[in-house]
DNA sequence: CAGGAATCTGTGAGCGGTCACACTAACTGT
DNA sequence: ACAGTTAGTGTGACCGCTCACAGATTCCTG
């Protein structure tokens, strides 16, 4: 005997913006069942694919759902299915990165998008310091989320190990440098990208091709430099190489200053990121050199600033939207206990005016 | 890598992946209770503040929690408390904005941070088109989240109305232009900011101060232009005013071209965003004008590009970290059914080299 | 036309917490 | 001494859903 809907306020306001003082109780699956004249089970079946439901019941339930404005209660469902339909996007980096690195600004919405298409939502977490890292780990471990998308460039990040130990489905963005880490990853082919740009600069006839490498404790920084060396071999002199401590604009300015100081007849520079390249551009302009006439500049990422810098940057395109999509794919496979492995996506040379 | 695939049956049914066989069952509150030799209720009390618990029981429970690796199940808790401890960050804008607008890159992590400090997590949602908007609304309405942080600049956004009708706690970033909208908001004082910059340019002795206004269907675009007019009054000639269709770089380039076409003796420009200013810079450089000697340029936002553009931009600082913090404050008040109202934060002139 | 398969439906038993309530025991004040 | 607090505890009733199972139809198919 299920009692009728008592103790609801007399307030029947529906669409109107009428001031409803107390929270109107949300209709439950039982309300819908009663309204449709069927059982809980049937409503549930309709809600989960509609298999084994007669056309009549289906229609009745759908109408009841519409009429009552019913929405399934996520907590109740998660409680029994043990699936939260949410994924954590963990940024295990100092805060500034989110501020400055344009790559996140495309990776993040792309992941949101790809997840949304699968009915999953993205929970953003930043793990800059020890305390935040613990909070994130605690959160993840208590099964708030079905999986983790991990963005951390620097090697030796403790989050990798912790995640790995806890058996939670996780995918990294970019190849983890730490060899102990077996979490699958998705990344662009940084090394080949480095080769592409270096090859291009050499083919354009440049004789003194310098490189502003990224931080060597990141896969991107390391691999791009390797690609450069793959092409130039021993011709890649020490004084043509500077490694920046980060991928940012200021670092690019400084590195470029160092380079022209050490080697004034440089006629080309490959910077390991667009931001570095943009900094290099500034230094070159201030030193009175014209780009690309005196010095050609190549970037990496094809981020938004590549097109808006002056001159627009010739760069290596990282297919970040694709990276996001595949990260989600791999994570989904992991969540479903299907086999999944790391993926490396091809890069592409984008020629603009700077080289 | 994971070992061979041991799934039973090739069933590919939707969501019908069986109960995960390998997962060892997470300890429940009953396990902890048994381990500590107390009842469920006592454990629950410990978990929720520890009031009315004897020191002995407290210690026993804490040890049991530690030993068993227990973590509370969020779904179970949410089911009864009706609180999800999550907040949606809804970006109701075309995708590109997240890509290009540097403001989001500071607002977003700042909100994440502020929420995390209150034990809330941030769920990122992008509502670019009709379909996505419905998905977001559906999500929010089904009480997945306790509240919504809404970022939408353009007036007439249907999300406002929908959110308002549904009685869900919500706070907007930036003043909604639509007068029907009563959702509280937090924003910088755009109008006063516009006055500050215009006043500064006038005080520096500039005679022909133009403005590149933002889109007039956004509060920022509209108010900054009003601020400019507050100072210049009728001296603000039509041919000194151009309104860009968005706050972006390209729009700035184009607008600047229009301005110098219509009025070659412009000696100062106030751009309604740093990105617009940056575009103006490019056009000015190409037209052979020096900044700030020939033309002074003022921006707005004090975003990351302000410091890295060439020359560095004199601009108006929006306290976005503060905006984020106060948005969370207001939202929290709303969630707790405490009174809360909109807040407008002061802006600040930041002098660099461009003006 | 019997009988097995396939379709459709309702029911009860949880999922893992919280919370109100009842109860005990020790501590008050008069 | 007795009632009245107050601290500390256990219990049962949910919260809203899914899922396995059993029962009831209908649909073949030999």
- Oligomer category: homodimer
Largest sheet properties of chain A? 6 strands, parallel
| C-alpha end-to-end distance of chain A | 79 Å
Q: What general form of chain A does the structure show?
A: elongated
Q: Spans of chain A with pLDDT under 50 lasting ≥5 residues?
A: 1-22
Largest interface: A-B, 67 and 64 residues
Structural class of chain A: alpha/beta
The overall pLDDT average of chain A reads 88
CATH topology of the largest domain in chain A: Rossmann fold
Strand order of the largest sheet of chain A: 2-1-3-4-5-11
- The number of helical elements of chain A comes to 14
The proportion of strand residues of chain A reads 5-15%
Into which percent range does the helicity of residues of chain A fall?
40-55%
> What count of structural domains of chain A?
3
CATH superfamily of the largest domain in chain A: Response regulator
Order of helices and strands of chain A: HHHHEHHEHEHEEHEHEHEHEHEHEE
CATH class of the largest domain in chain A: Alpha Beta
